[in-house]
Each structure stands twice: as C-alpha cells, then as structure tokens.
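Lab channel / #folding
Pinned by the channel admin:
"Please post every new chain as: sequence first, then the structure tokens as a reply. Keep commentary short and put observations after the output so the thread stays searchable."

First post following the new format, from NK:
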Amino acid sequence: MDETETEQTTAEASRRVAVGRSDQPDARSAGAAAAAEALEADDAKLLVVFCSDSYDLEQLLAGVRAKSGDVPLIGCSTAGEIAASGPGDAGVVITAFGGPGFSASTAAATEASSHLRGAGAQAAACIEEVDHREHRVLLVLTDGLAGDQQEIVRGAYSIVGAAIPLVGGCAGDDLRMKATFQLHDGQVLSNAVVAAALSSETPFGIGVRHGWRRLGEPMLVTRSAGNRVYEIDDAPALDVYLDHLDPPAEVRTDAAAFTRFAQTHPLGLAARRGEEHVRFIAEADFDERSLVCIAQVPQGARAWLMEGDDESVLDATDAACGDALDALGDHPPLGVLAFDCIARRGILGDEGIRTEVARVASNVGDVPVAGFYTYGEIARTHGVSGFHNQTLVVLAVA
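Reply from TO:
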C-alpha cells in the first residue's frame, strides 16, 4: 500500500456513517431499536431521524434518546421512509454520523410561518458552531406547509453564503396536508425549521434531478402572490389547469382527489441558464379558482404543465446519484441521504419505488442509504435559489 492509499484509509477510518431502521408498532421500542442499530460505535456526532407521524413522536424520540444520550439530533415526519433495504411506511430510519473526522452542530427555529426568511437564518446560524474544516454542508428540514419554502432557503443562504451548500427536504404527513413535525435534540416541533451543520475532512456531493417533461405550449402566470397562482394566461389558474389536463370528475370538486392528481401533474417554471424549477401544486381553492403551491410562483413567469413516467423518473434517479458521486472525486462514498418527492412516488407506484431505491443502492454501492419522501426538496450548490419540487436530491458523504 503506497503513502496516498495509507492516508486515504486512515481518513476513512476517522468517519463512519451507519443507518438503523425499525417498523415496530410501539413508538418507544421502534426509536430505541433503530437508534441502537445506527449507533454502532460510541462516538456519534449527529443523528438524523426520518419517521412516520403515525407514531407517538414524543415516545419515539424518548426511545432514541435512551440509546443516544445527548448526541445532537435533527429529524422530521415523512410521507414514507427510505433505506438500502427498500422503501417503507409507518417506520423510522436513523442515520448516525460518527468519528473524529466529523463535527456537527444543530439549531431550530419555531413559528416559522410568521417569519420564513428569519426562521431559515436562525436555523442556519448553527454553521458558526461547527469546526471550520475544508468541507461543510448545512442539512435543513422544514415544515413544507408553513409557506413559501424559497424564503426559508434565502434566509439560510444569508447566513452561510455561496461557499456552503444547502441540502434537505420538507417534512410530510402522508399527504394529509394537515400538520408536519420536526425533531430537534429532545423536542418534537411543528411549524419549525431544524438544521444541522456538518463538517468533514473530505467532500460532500449533491445531485439534483427531476425527470419531468413539458406538456403542451408555454403559458404565462399573469397573476400570482407568493405561492398562490390566481391567473394563467389571464384566466382562472385552476380552470386552465383542469381544462388542459381533463382529469377525472372528482378532481374538480374533491380536495383530496385534487391533491392526489396534482402530485403527478406539476407546474414547471423557466429558470436561468435553461434550467427548470418544478412546483408541487399542493391544493386547489375551489372558490377563488386558484392553485396553491409549496413555493413561490412569480407573476410574469413562463410556465408549463409537466408529466413523467417510470422511465424518465428512474433515469433521473441514476443521474442524481451519478452527479453526487462525481462530486466526491477520488473519495469513495461512506453513505448517502436521499430526499425524494412524494410526487415521484405517485408516478412510480409501490413496485416502482422498490425499483427506484434498488437503483439508488446499485449506483452508490455497498454503503448505508437513508432518506424520506418529502413535500419539497432543498439543494443549493450555486446561487441563492435552492428549493425544488417533484425532484430527487441525493447527498453523498465521503
């Protein structure tokens, strides 16, 4: 073994990524079991918890803390959990980052809906507490029902600047769209933003792909405010959307049916450098005939309806994994976090998401994988913009 190989092996030994998983029905037992599996050594620096809100989250967190003690922790409720063994529901997946090669710090901001940008900044301030190693990343988990998520990203960016990437996702509640939950150390929160700054001696890699195609001709958003779209091409936005897509009759009158339909028929927005931003349409206002999205839709934006299929979504999975791994250079991955939009799950179905998670595992090799199905994804590697919908975001950790 030459000197370079020896140095790399030593560096790898200083960092560990491990994942624990449980679907035990008792919340405290599930939390304890998943934590015990993830905590393969006693030098954990950070725990990241993704869990179903069908659990009593206070009890689940108590089970985790019984095993982890005061190890810094962030997490959130989901619309389904992801691990290398496959996707699941009504379970908990915990990732532990351990070893002297990692340093971590966490923070939380509550009442996020009343100060979205401020909440992002408040949570991101934990970056100042982490060791200033060469490579740093900020993990951000938010309440996707709190309002315009791009404002949270802008607030975080105002603290960390352009040099530190942001990555994460919006908590879920199995598409009920009622309330999501965020976890910080020993607390269960709602309407909150939680963040963890993680620093390492080796790189982090981020891949972002969506796999959606434009459907029909471009349209103009002629009236919008924040994340609500009132008019497209000078007509009521909901009517334009429904008339173009001609959905089943119940979608025109039933809120739950509309949300299920809309998760596989997003809105695409033209962005700089030929990119597209995809917006998850969370609900319809049947009285004022508007569309409510998870993030801002600017007035005057060019927009498209979008569609996808199994092939395009799985191609995007491969591409996102490839981009994340390429960013690690010569360093092998130690583990992967995946933030996958619930809408992509809607396209693939139960069998398809098993295929997708298997594709992630195949791409990254024999390393731990954890993640969840989100209400929106965060990935900022350049510029201030960094909120996505209907997208897969992959974080590879070397």
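NK: The longest strand covers residues 213-225.
TO: also worth noting, The longest helix spans residues 342-364.
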